[in-house]
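User: Hey, quick favor. My workstation is busy. Could you predict this chain's structure for me?
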Amino acid sequence: GSQGIVQGTYETYAECARQHFGGTLKGTLNVTAGLGGMGGAQPLAITMNEGVCLAAEVEEWRMRKRLETRYLDYMVRDIDEGIDMALKARETKQAASIGVLCNAVDLLERLKERNIHLDTLTDQTSAHDPLVGYYPEGMDVEAADRLRKNNPEKYLEESYKTIVQHVTLMLEFQKRGTVTFD
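Assistant: No problem, here it is.
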């Protein structure tokens, strides 16, 4: 169940901390996307390892669920506000998890524009399910749901474009020295 997912996710980040950050994520910025099933454990696993988590999620109900169960500390709608909160927490070496209600691509684009170094980057969006599990960039949930229903071919096309953008950004951060994993 969820206990096992948290434990497994915690251990993944603990191992990452051992390999790359001297045994703790304290003072690190860890970016992820998707707070469903597996992804929902990430903010808690990161803060349990003393790090800062900045997570993108497009579906507000998912984020609210993580706030209620205390897997997530904060939810914001403004990307820059979320980034600023995360940077302040990294600077002061506080463990904190911040969810930003946005598409992963928009969060990563903004982090790139602001030239912010990410210590780790991962992705827990359902990119393996581009029709149902993934939201194209530039669309709110309602518009995306309408398009999925009315024109699944167009929806898939938009999803694939976003997935390509997402992967390209992840690879770019990896080139800049970010520990990147899936």
